[in-house]
Amino acid sequence: MADSGSNYKALTGVRLEELKVAARDIKTFAGDVRVWAFEGDMGAGKTTLIRELCCQFGVVDNVSSPTFSIVNEYQNNIGEVFFHFDFYRIEDISEAMDIGCEEYFYSGEYCFIEWPSRITNLLPDQYMEVKIGIVDPAQRSIELTKYE
Questions:
Q1: Range of the domain at 48
Q2: What is the three-class DSSP state of 78?
Q3: Residue 18 has what DSSP assignment?
Q4: Is the whole model's pTM more than 0.85, yes or no?
Q5: CATH number, residue 23
Q6: How many domains does the chain have?
Q7: CA-closest candidate to residue 23, choices 45, 5, 7, 6
Q8: What is the pLDDT of residues 44-70, one digit of tens each?
Q9: Core vs surface per residue 6-40: b (16+ CB within 10 A) or e
Q10: What backbone phi and psi angles, to 5 degrees, belong to 28?
Q11: Count of CB atoms within 10 A of residue 108's CB?
């Protein structure tokens, strides 16, 4: 793991069995940032990482990709709400606006966004980008950048 500044952190060589530790590091690094944008190729592990992050937050609901519903809502054991978005299938940014994504992003609740590049203009000024790269079938690199 490398750290080069307070707004950037790289986790390299993360093995699948180390996701729990990586998720804990990501949660700590994020601080007060509530909107997290997950970038990575298909199959890189965005949903898997989000599932582990939700475990770190004590989410009691089943965490799955909202591929067709666009957004899933989860709750943890102390009543906090988490929104999980998947914008892969949207054809136009207006579809994201139609579901009121900006209201979600500015709600103060945690928002985990897969395929944020499809709605870049709608992201708030303060968010954290989580880039997942495939090193090999069993390892990932994760780059964290906070925009504040």
A1: 2-147
A2: coil
A3: G
A4: yes
A5: 3.40.50.300
A6: 1
A7: 45
A8: 999 999 999 999 999 999 999 998 899
A9: eeebebeebeeeebeebbebbeebbeebbbbbbbb
A10: -65, -45
A11: 9
